[in-house]
Amino acid sequence: MRNLNRFHLNGLRALEAAGRLGNLRAAAEELGVTVGAVSQQILKAEEQFGRPLFERHPKGLRPTAFGQDVLRYLSAGFAEISTGLTLAERRREGVLTVSVAPVFASKWLVWRLQRFREQHPDIRIRIDADVSLVDPGSSDVDVCIRVGRGGWPNVKAEKLLDQLIFPVCSAAIGERLRHPRDLAAVPIIREPTPMFGWNAWLGPNGLDESILGDGPVFSDASLCLDAAVAGQGVFLGWETLACDAIAMGRLVAPFPDRYDTGISYWFVTARSAPMTRAAAAFRDWLKAELAVEQSSAAAVAAFTHSGTNSMT
Hints:
By secondary structure, this protein is an alpha/beta fold. The protein has helices spanning 9-21, 24-31, 35-49, 65-93, 102-109, 113-119, 171-174, 199-202, 221-229, 239-247, 277-311, and strands at 54-57, 60-63, 95-100, 124-129, 143-148, 155-168, 235-238, 259-270. It has a six-stranded mixed sheet. Strands 1-2 form a two-stranded antiparallel ribbon. The longest helix has 35 residues, at 277-311. It starts with 8 loop residues before the first helix and ends with a helix. This is LysR substrate-binding domain-containing protein. Keywords: DNA-binding, Transcription, Transcription regulation.
């Protein structure tokens, strides 16, 4: 690595920024210097390399073949440096930034975070509620909790929980439901773009969604659940969405059957960096909490099934 002593870091940064952004002005804005300063740094770096790295054009800069080779390694190197510095800052601050879907955050996670804080008082959690898949290796996010089928590129994804779906409604509507075909006689609450349709639950019961009637439509699952609590109809929910409302008696699950959609919850981390102690602690805590949730859900389903049998 002795050849690093021959080049100025500022010159290499100017080369990388200009090559990535395509013009001097954008590079100057990113680096916080003047256009003239960037131009001089590039010229000095080209003198040190002994050949030009860019072709100058009226619309900007275009890397030469040699420049393309150099810039590829410079971009990768500065990305690694940035990752290392970000990791060091996170460890120093003791903050774990978690990107999570808003519905999961509001209906399940925030109600349990105090238990994590009590177990790990040295770790501060910052929740970033967002549905997009962020790469923890190239952002200020440490970990993501995502819902899907997995297989995302350039990240590590560890399954936390399979998503099981089942109808939920108010107790008053639940009294009218003794068999899945009774759903034809009650309003059905829907999302415009759900992750799964009613056939995922009706199909195993020998029915399809053509039997279902109309009902209110809301833009996200959280609003749909609130509408079910308000007695506006039946919604096809899942455990982490509906478990607290069921436990508090605000909703009931009128049927015992819960079916797998092929969709799961995943703990997503950077592929290029080792998992931090804080991230590992948060993952282990999530798994323990979700295991408790599964046990509780199984007990509720068994109780519902025994109650259904006693009424038939």
